[in-house]
Amino acid sequence: MHLCLSMWSFALDFQRRNMDIQRFAQTCRDLGVNSVELVDYFWVSAGQPLSVLESSGIRVCAYDIATDFVHLDPTVRHHQVKLACAAIEEAVRVGSGIVRVLPGKLKPEVSLEDALQMVIEAASSLARYAHNAGVTVVLEPHEDVVNSAETLRYVAQQVGSSAFGVNADLCTFLLMGLNPVAECAGVVDLCRLVHLNDMRQVSKKYAGYQYRSVTGKTYAGTVVGDGEIDLRGCVKTLVDGGFGGPFSVECLCMDNAMQGVQKSLENVHKILQEVIQR
Predict the structure, then answer these.
(1) Under 8 Å CB-to-CB from 75, ≥6 apart: which residues?
(2) What angle do CA 236, 241, 245 make, to 5 degrees?
(3) Nearest by Cα to 149 from 111, 199, 112, 190
(4) Residue 204 belongs to a domain with what CATH number?
(5) Which of the four, 239, 244, 250, 271, has the lowest number of CB atoms within 10 Å?
(6) C-alpha distances in angstroms, 146 versus 166, 184, 240?
(7) So what's the pLDDT on residue 235?
(8) Could you tell me the residue range of the domain that residue 170 belongs to?
(9) Could you tell me if 38 and 2 are in contact, meaning their C-beta atoms sit under 8 angstroms apart?
(10) Which pLDDT band, with edges at 50, 70 and 90, does 222 fall under?
(11) What would the pLDDT profile of 56-106 be if each residue is shown by its tens digit?
């Protein structure tokens, strides 16, 4: 079972410059992690020091780039596709077979139908580029255009490429007011990556970073396995459906990242063992 750690788990530390690639690699070694999911923004800002990871015996399970394909201007959409193609090239360089992209956010001047078509056109171009590069592009549910198993499956059917798949992000499903277990079941055959993350409902007066649900609820990131998501149910559904990884631990309790990541890894290891050995 392939388990990796997302760099996004230390996003706040990277943003505050309390973490760099050298420290990240050392932290991974200390935690017994040998596979990571890179985030393009942090990786490029750090100078893309592949030798640091290689010397630490750390391999890359996925390469993430934030994209937005929903724009009226075709030039802007083309630029976003070019950025994703560059990410595909970087994924090849670092040895990752997976590149994660985001669909984009609905704009006032764009209808939902047109927005979905923009995502499909961009994803189709990227799937062709990825196929030639020998990697797989995965689309993560995000924002208000592609955010459910139904819309992910629709995009995948329209793209129709073996070089295109899905990243099941559990917290996105929760924030969309959906049941993460049921959504995982709806895309398990398309999954090429899974973000194991978690949240709990908090008061709107909560002082930390807040996530807003379409239902009006306010959430805060937690240790993976300690929040409201039925993590065991999601993992069991995915494993039973034939998914073998990578499961990427993405801890969203960023104010205390080190402690949160360590506990998240412990919880995930325990759940994986329970599910596999049942």
Answers:
(1) none
(2) 75
(3) 190
(4) 3.20.20.150
(5) 244
(6) 11, 15, 25
(7) 97
(8) 3-277
(9) no
(10) very high
(11) 999 999 999 999 999 999 999 999 999 999 999 999 999 999 999 999 999
Which residues fall within 8 angstroms of residue 124, CB to CB, at 6 or more apart?
Answer: 158, 159, 161
Is-contact 253 215, C-beta < 8 A?
Answer: no
The structure's pTM equals: 0.95
What interhelical angle do 257-277 and 21-31 show, nearest 10? 40
* pLDDT digits 0-9 by tens, 267-278: 999 999 999 876
Reply yes or no on whether the pLDDT at 188 is more than 90: yes
